[in-house]
Amino acid sequence: MKVLIDFTIIPLGVGVSLSPYVARCHEIFEKRKITSTLHANGTNLEGEWDDVMGAIKECHELIHQTGVPRIASIIKVGTRTDRSQTMDDKIKSVNSKLHRA
Amino acid sequence: MKVLIDFTIIPLGVGVSLSPYVARCHEIFEKRKITSTLHANGTNLEGEWDDVMGAIKECHELIHQTGVPRIASIIKVGTRTDRSQTMDDKIKSVNSKLHRA
Amino acid sequence: MKVLIDFTIIPLGVGVSLSPYVARCHEIFEKRKITSTLHANGTNLEGEWDDVMGAIKECHELIHQTGVPRIASIIKVGTRTDRSQTMDDKIKSVNSKLHRA
Amino acid sequence: MKVLIDFTIIPLGVGVSLSPYVARCHEIFEKRKITSTLHANGTNLEGEWDDVMGAIKECHELIHQTGVPRIASIIKVGTRTDRSQTMDDKIKSVNSKLHRA
User: Chains near D, with 3+ CB pairs < 8 A?
Assistant: First the structure.
């Protein structure tokens, strides 16, 4: 089962600067060869369910190992069986429908 | 790694009545003995990461098998290493701090 | 426009104990007479769009005023025009479909 | 109060193709001059709280007016008082911390 995911990680108890932790997660995604795209409020991920969810689990585990006591994260999941659709397809589909002069 | 999760499933392409699908997920949670509490906008789940995430995956798979072509879901995740905390603990902790006359 | 909302607030830069802040939000909801139900991973809110969103805004503002430098929150929104539905209706609808022996 | 938001809209009861509705929302954001960036699983928005939330409300209202009976949406909110930060700042901050060869 393929999945498109938007993942946001929020480490708690470590101050207000979260970008070092987001960067650690991206290194996991790269190491595991998960297709990922960073945006301003999270990271889009694309792949097989187990691969993507496994990477997210490693991200929680690794960040705890660096001494972070509590983590909140938000995983927005999309699965579909009617057709294959990539992250790029979704963006193109919206853009094609914008009534721009 | 223990996890507290708030899970919301939104089947698409099947009209506006979603409760039959939420009920199917709850049957999976019960079968797998995942501690779960239904609320008005989702289901709280408590357990080991792999157990809870495995149940959520089965939920997506089962609902697709019933003919639903597309599913969106939202998984709010909480993990912590500083102490053990149940769903009940979290609710009691807030209630103890309400300044009620 | 009526709205059913699941609201989760995550203050950052204040350590790992978040329940005092959740309690402050609940006092706002009570003061503004917003129907609210606390659960383990957030608070369900019910009312007119402007009333509920106004209370959420006051919650962000008040928590910043107590010295919290950064806040993340998650607002899951439901609106419908086909029929009126309360938070209780949603829970009853799922429970009625559970195949319990 | 400035806000950075990630907004995802999920119209229900209208089949599996959601991009026309996302496009309608983007037209509202452009009309109202809200800074917005589309990504594969939502739209990032930046501006004053009331401006951004007002645009999201109009988005729900407009989509209902086109005949959509039920809408779910997810609003991830970020506010901070310690410093000003744009969407671009957040992305640059993560990228600067990636240990890329």
Answer: A, B, C
Residues contacting residue A53 through CB under 8 Å, at least 6 positions apart: A3, B53, B57
Q: What are phi and psi of D68, to 5 degrees?
A: -80, 120
**Given an 8 Å threshold on Cβ–Cβ distance, is B72 in contact with A78?**
yes
Tokens of D76: 């991830």
- Count of C-beta atoms within a 10 Å radius of residue A82: 14
pLDDT at position A101:
46
Residues from chain C contacting residue A72 (CB–CB below 8 Å): 10, 72
Task: Note the pLDDT of residue C99.
Answer: 72
pLDDT digits (tens, 9 = 90+) for B3-25: 999 999 999 999 999 999 999 99
Number of helical (H) and strand (E) elements in chain B, helices listed first? 3, 4
Is D58 within 8 Å of D45 (Cβ atoms)? no
Mutate which: C8, C71, C77, C84, vs D, most D CBs within 10 A: C77
Q: Complex ipTM, two decimals?
A: 0.95
Structure tokens at A39: 């945006």
Domains along chain A with CATH numbers: 2-95 (3.30.70.930)
3-state secondary structure string, C24-66? HHHHHHHHCCCEEEEECCEEEEEEEHHHHHHHHHHHHHHHHHC
d(CA D55, CA A95): 19
pTM: 0.96
Amino acid residing at A92: K
Spans of chain A below 50 pLDDT = 101
Q: Please choose, from the candidates B81, D80, D87, the residue with its C-alpha nearest in 3D space to the C-alpha of residue A13.
A: B81
Q: Give residue D101's pLDDT band: very low, low, confident or very high (50, 70, 90).
A: very low
In this predicted structure, what is the pLDDT of residue D7? Answer: 98
Contact call for B16 and D12, based on CB within 8 A:
yes
Q: Could you tell me the mean pLDDT of each successive run of 10 residues in chain C, 101 residues long?
A: 98 94 96 97 97 98 97 98 93 88 46
Per the structure block, which two tokens stand in for D98? Answer: 């990636």
